[in-house]
Amino acid sequence: MSGTKPRLRGKNWLRLKGKIMSLTVAGTDYVQMPVGTTGQRPTTPAAGMTRYNSTTTQLEYYNGTAWVVASAYYPISYLVVAGGGGAQTGGGGAGGLFTNSLTVSRFTTYTVTVGGGGTGSNPAIAPTSGSNSVLSGSDITTITSVGGGKGGASDVVGSRNGAVGGSGGGGAGDSTGPAGSAGTFGQGYAGGNTASTSSPFPASGGGGYTAVGGVGTGSTGGAGGAGVANSITGSSVNYGGGGGGGVLRSGGTAGAGGTGGGGAGSNNGNGTAGTANTGGGGGGFGIDTSGTNFGGNGGSGVVILSMPTIYYSGTTTGSPTVTTSGANTILKFTASGSYTA
User: What's the number of domains the chain is made of?
Assistant: First the structure.
């Protein structure tokens, strides 16, 4: 039929790979796509192929990598955890945490920022708080989880009180009875106040997502506040534990780290760092006569997105870990990046 104009008799015509093909138009206002099950998809698909999947009851197209649903919007679940606070003798507060779901728009790019953990310190250096983690996009309300507050410092450098954060830092081991600081509403709890003002000067624990930091009293450092279990990855993982308080002089017992990655305090050495990608606070150091012992660093944050695999576009930056669980695809960002829906 090359060079011949076809007549239109109840059908429209189109040219496909050099051939003129008919496209049936039933009634007045629709075109019927090919219909088939998931198992009947083309064995060697090409980008742009479009069909109605009778298994999923969704219109789908092949994007060059995978079959995706041709929908303008779809749901995503998220977990956004900020970096935990660094410790000195007071335990670091856990990074703030938000988890929920939202609706995203096809072809829109969503930016992910993963907060780092704060730095632990010795008496000559002030510790630092954790950094915020953020999920943002042009059509959603920006989600910002606040970095965990640094632990209190038992010397002239840095405040003896813990710092405000997603969860607050614990008070230092000190004769003045330092206070823990507040967490951020909806993201975490306060660090513990220090009750003991005499040797061995136990410090208090940093706050966690579900509980305040323990109080340093008698000869025992306060435990870090507990975090929370979350199964967005398909298995239960604890996030947002506060760091345990250290003990400044000999003869005491350090505080345990909070469940959810909080580092344990020490009664004779360096504090334990918060667990990476949990937002756990760092644990406080113990017995420092030479100025060489350090509180633990806060654990880094994480951003996790979960969506039905039939919607997953496959377009990311920042090299997230991509896994599947049941019918969902999960993106775990341990460094900043983006996802284009």
Answer: 2
Residue 42's domain comprises 11-69
Q: Is residue 1 part of a domain?
A: no
Please name which of 190, 150, 195 lies closest in space to residue 173, comparing C-alpha atoms: 195
Name residues whose C-beta falls within 8 Å of residue 326's C-beta, 6 or more positions apart in sequence: 234
- Give tens-digit pLDDT for 100-140: 999 999 899 999 999 999 999 998 889 999 999 999 999 99
In-domain check, residue 319? yes
- At which of 22, 52, 69 does a domain end? 69
Query: Is 280 inside a domain boundary?
Result: yes
Which parts of 71-220 are beta strand (E)?
A: 73-81, 97-105, 109-113, 133-136, 143-145
Neighbour count for residue 65 (Cβ, 10 Å): 12
Give the strand order in the sheet containing 30-31.
11-16, 19-26, 30-31
* Selection from 314, 306, 312, 302 nearest residue 330 by Cα: 306
Output the CA torsion sign for 160, 123, 281, 119. Answer: positive
